[in-house]
């Protein structure tokens, strides 16, 4: 499997996803500032991977600390604020920083700095290992749900699945969230073909998902983002499955811009549309999608394609990185704990023991 991120010898190693497929470039850094820049520029990307990268970035930051124990609280507060300011929508980033803050809160008063840092290191590694394990759990729950929901078609033939953006190894560390489900469904003989929508402007679907599918020998075809309704109308898509950057308590889901249009089209055509995401992507503190901060990115991402100007340099642009799909358009939310279908307000709470 592709190693999108790893941490060894106090060094963060990652595959720079901005240049795939033009070049496969691995970067190693001990600098937390460089790691923050990697998150901001989407060199590392995808909600679970952003969470893992954020945890290791905090470790790089504390490793660079040279002051006394008394000076650490202010340093740590600034470090956390800098990491949290890197990308606003993927809640996994805040999940990771909250975990490390908890280790700090629980141990700072009693531990030496060295012991505290060792505990934080362990916590960061655990976030990483948990996300890998989550992929396998989501995949199992997702495939089981698909077998139930699409049983009638599966008696006759295999399925054509639509996915958007990239939710595979590159985004999740393990086999993936939505792409993990697709991989297992393929291994179990349920999939005819995967349809990957390009995911303008940064083309995560066209570049990254296609690359991962090719790597695994899974048949796929890529489409422009605006093609999905037409393909559904023609019976060329049986269901959709995507990842998430933040899920509100009522199931409203932020994911890569373009997801909402796919989900509404699927709903119109009576096709199941699923979200696959680990529980670390659910923000149970917000009641609905209106509370999800939506990242707006640089206008030049839209005006240019890989550095080539494709619009007037002063073309006014709205470049929202994510949209919010209302929960009512979703057939289910596949998590590592279980597949949640039905009443999201009641069901999602139970994942948090509420
Ligand atoms: C499992 S990844 C889920 C999402 O993070 C993914 O679909 C997505 O929107 C990624 O956006 P990106 O801007 O590439 O970080």
Automatic annotation (TrEMBL):
Pathway: Amino-acid biosynthesis; L-methionine biosynthesis via salvage pathway; L-methionine from S-methyl-5-thio-alpha-D-ribose 1-phosphate: step 1/6. Belongs to the EIF-2B alpha/beta/delta subunits family. MtnA subfamily. It catalyses: 5-(methylsulfanyl)-alpha-D-ribose 1-phosphate = 5-(methylsulfanyl)-D-ribulose 1-phosphate. HAMAP family: Salvage_MtnA (MF_01678). It comes from the Bacteria. The keyword Isomerase applies. One of its GO terms (molecular function) is S-methyl-5-thioribose-1-phosphate isomerase activity. SUPFAM superfamilies: NagB/RpiA/CoA transferase-like. Pfam families: IF-2B. InterPro entries: IF-2B-related (IPR000649), IF-M1Pi (IPR005251), IF_2B-like_C (IPR042529), Initiation_fac_2B_a/b/d (IPR011559), M1Pi_N (IPR027363), NagB/RpiA_transferase-like (IPR037171). The keyword Ribosomal protein does not apply. One of its GO terms (biological process) is L-methionine salvage from methylthioadenosine. Keywords: Amino-acid biosynthesis, Initiation factor, Isomerase, Methionine biosynthesis, Protein biosynthesis. The record marks 165 as: Transition state stabilizer. It is an enzyme of class 5 (isomerase). It comes from Chlorobium ferrooxidans DSM 13031. Catalyzes the interconversion of methylthioribose-1-phosphate (MTR-1-P) into methylthioribulose-1-phosphate (MTRu-1-P). Substrate binds at residues 45-47, 87, 204, 255-256. Its EC number is 5.3.1.23. This is Methylthioribose-1-phosphate isomerase. Gene3D superfamilies: translation initiation factor eif-2b, domain 1, Translation initiation factor eif-2b, domain 2. The active site is at residue 245.
């Amino acid at each position: 499997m592709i190693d999108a991120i790893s941490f060894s010898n106090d060094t963060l190693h990652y595959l720079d996803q901005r240049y795939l497929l033009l070049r496969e470039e691995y970067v190693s850094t001990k600098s937390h500032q460089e790691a923050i820049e990697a998150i901001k520029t989407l060199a590392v990307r995808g909600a679970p991977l952003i969470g893992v990268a954020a945890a290791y970035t905090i470790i790089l930051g504390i490793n660079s600390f040279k002051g006394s124990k008394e000076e650490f609280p202010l340093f740590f507060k600034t470090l956390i604020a800098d990491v949290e300011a890197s990308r606003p929508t993927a809640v996994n980033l805040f999940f990771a920083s909250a975990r490390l803050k908890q280790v700090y809160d629980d141990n700072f008063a009693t531990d030496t700095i060295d012991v505290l840092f060792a505990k934080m290191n362990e916590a960061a590694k655990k976030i990483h290992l948990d996300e890998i394990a989550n992929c396998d759990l989501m995949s199992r729950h997702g495939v089981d749900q698909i077998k139930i929901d699409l049983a009638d078609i599966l008696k006759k033939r295999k399925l054509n699945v639509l996915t958007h953006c990239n939710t595979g190894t590159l985004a999740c560390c393990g086999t993936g969230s939505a792409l993990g489900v697709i991989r297992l469904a393929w291994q179990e003989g349920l999939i005819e073909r995967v349809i990957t929508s390009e995911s303008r402007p940064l083309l995560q679907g066209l570049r990254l998902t296609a690359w991962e599918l090719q790597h695994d020998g899974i048949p796929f075809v890529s489409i422009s983002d605006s093609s999905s309704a037409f393909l559904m109308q023609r019976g060329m898509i049986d269901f959709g499955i995507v990842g998430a950057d933040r899920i509100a308590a009522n199931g409203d889901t932020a994911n890569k811009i373009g997801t909402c249009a796919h989900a509404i089209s699927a709903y119109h055509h009576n096709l199941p549309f699923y979200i696959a995401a680990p529980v670390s992507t659910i923000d149970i503190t917000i009641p609905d999608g209106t509370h999800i901060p939506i990242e707006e990115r640089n206008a030049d991402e839209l005006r240019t394609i890989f550095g080539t100007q494709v619009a007037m340099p002063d073309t006014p642009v709205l470049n929202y990185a994510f949209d919010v799909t209302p929960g009512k358009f979703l057939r289910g939310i596949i998590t590592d704990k279980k597949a949640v279908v039905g009443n999201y307000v009641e069901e999602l709470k139970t994942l948090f023991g509420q």
